[in-house]
Amino acid sequence: xxxxxxxxxxxxxxxxxxxxxxxxxxxxxxxxxxxxxxxxxxxxxxxxxxxxxxxxxxxxxxxxxxxxxxxxxxxxxxxxxxxxxxxxxxxxxxxxxxxxxxxxxxxxxxxxxxxxxxxxxxxxxxxxxxxxxxxxxxxxxxxxxxxxxxxxxxxxxxxxxxxxxxxxxxxxxxxxxxxxxxxxxxxxxxxxxxxxxxxxxxxxxxxxxxxxxxxxxxxxxxxxxxxxxxxxxxxxxxxxxxxxxxxxxxxxxxxxxxxxxxxxxxxxxxxxxxxxxxxxxxxxxxxxxxxxxxxxxxxxxxx
Length: 303
Ligand SMILES: [Zn+2]
Hints:
Its cofactor is Zn(2+). The chain is of the alpha/beta class and 303 residues long.
């Protein structure tokens, strides 16, 4: 991902009269403080814009699902008294929908089968297009989406305009793995469309995926989305909080205190401890994205 440069072929500008936002955690570990920051920001931003706020559990990657983390996510939504405006959906139940979209993409010759093993691909993150013209059978192979040599730009509400050339920066990317697992990219794009999402608020670790998702959405003629990527929460050691570095699971018995810390970490005015529902209402009333810091450091924060 790099700053805006000269030539650009596809500029995305989303203009929406209504707002539908979402919080879409993956149950690959329990929710941690970084997830709470994303939940609070997406919630406040939707509500201050009189929008809806939906929750979607991104559990397509079944082998990576962490035991009980789905239950933990749902108990957190409850304990922090977030109120989703529609029933929570689970991506693992939606395989047939994703399969249909893959079929449409196949009809339009937008995808192809790839037989490259992890060993062949090595550490090269930009796929060279090795299997693009091999016309391999689709069964039991990974499925990749063709990308073109063009600059894709979008205006992020916090990060400014960002552009990327899919061919040179990322390469044809996987929509379905050889083991049959639907990729995050495909499931996100399809569900954002089907749920009528207009605004995405999420962590900046997902920035690289955004141009992939914009590209896939444009091939399917889905409406453009409005993006805001939050700075990542860092721990005392300067590492981003993640399931990989064993960020501590949110303690639902400390919901008001954790909520207070998350609101502060987002640069918003302090809110007194109360029932989470009331604290969230206050956070919405005073929500100001201009106060979100460039980097979120959690030194000394209660965790
Ligand atoms: Zn290949």
